[in-house]
Specification:
This protein has helices spanning about 25-35, 75-85, 95-110, 150-155, 155-160, 210-220, 235-245, 275-280, and strands at about 5-10, 70, 120-125, 130-135, 140-145, 165, 170-175, 180-185, 195-200, 205, 225-235, 250-255, 260, 265. By secondary structure, it is an alpha/beta fold. Strand 7 and strand 8 (about 180-185) form a beta hairpin. Helix 2 packs antiparallel against helix 3 (about 95-110). It is globular, with a radius of gyration of 19 Å. The structure holds uracil.
């Protein structure tokens, strides 16, 4: 089996993930124990420690390798809480949708870390002039929800991101070929090479749709190293494919579940996220 160049940073996988390919489980568990944030593959099993815990001879924390895909599962209790609400089959549609919106909000914060461009300025405060930083409104993040379910993760995006522009992408499964078929494409004709693109799709299952979406975005000039994906649950099979094709990409997930059933649904997963969110 080909080993994908994937690094997992932080947090957890569900219990079945210990059999997952792409070295997902052991690394992520190690991070879960210490709440690490981002590591390269080579040092993924070791999280940074609090200052003073290690001696002076401790190696510096590793930096993410730009040639590897990074998968980040933030170790946040609220993320776990809203995932638990979303997993529950008895959760009513509106609450399910609110849970996904909260998960989206947290993952957007995480994706924006050390990514959103800022500029320095000074403002007059009540007591003194303060040196400050603003997110640069001249560089809006290009937010790409994959319809339908991707909309749910972005419900809070306009209040989280000071500057963003939204381009919708819609895919439906072609029942003959079983391949994703593009039915709505609001992407710009061309992205600047340094355009920052945030894609949302709650379920990375077989990976067919997300791969098609990333390809579509890259074909318009965006670079994988400037693309970040937020999802609720990711399956190793989709992460493997993404990492083989697009090193440099980053994926932010609330959880990694190993199994796909014979219909391509993630188990335990969330069921059909679009149907649950929109009551269809
Ligand atoms: N899409 C969903 O909505 N759920 C899955 O489990 C897989 C794909």
């Amino acid at each position: 089996m080909a080993i994908a160049r994937v690094s997992i940073a932080s947090s957890s996988t569900s219990s079945t993930a210990s059999r997952a390919p792409v070295s997902v489980a052991s690394r992520s568990r190690a991070f879960h124990a210490r709440g690490g944030v981002a590591q390269t593959r080579a040092r993924a099993a070791r999280a940074p420690r609090a200052s003073g815990e290690e001696g002076d001879d401790a190696p510096p924390p590793a930096r993410p390798n730009p040639n590897q895909m990074l998968v980040i599962v933030p170790p946040h209790p609220l993320l776990k809480h809203w995932l638990a609400v979303a997993r529950n089959v008895q959760t009513p549609g509106p609450i399910f949708r609110a849970a996904l919106a909260e998960i989206g909000r947290i993952l957007i914060y995480e994706a924006g870390r050390e990514w959103l461009p800022t500029f320095e300025a000074q403002v007059q405060g009540p007591l003194a002039i303060a040196d400050v930083e603003f997110v640069n409104p001249e560089k809006p993040v290009s937010v790409v929800p994959i319809l339908r379910a991707g909309l749910t993760l972005l419900e809070e995006s306009s209040s989280v991101l000071p500057a963003s522009v939204t381009y919708h992408l819609g895919y439906v499964r072609d029942e003959e070929t079983l391949q994703p078929k593009l039915y709505l494409n609001k992407l710009p004709e061309k992205f600047e090479e340094d355009a920052q693109v945030l894609i949302s799709d709650p379920m990375l299952a077989t990976g067919g749709t997300i791969l098609a979406a990333v390809e579509e975005i890259i074909s318009r000039g965006a670079s994988p190293k400037n693309i970040r994906i937020i999802c609720v649950v990711a399956c190793p099979v989709s992460l493997t494919e993404l990492s083989k094709r697009y090193p440099g990409l980053r994926v932010y997930a609330a959880m990694i579940d190993e199994h796909l059933n014979e219909n391509g649904y993630i188990v335990p997963g969330l069921g059909d996220a679009g149907d649950r969110a929109f009551g269809t």
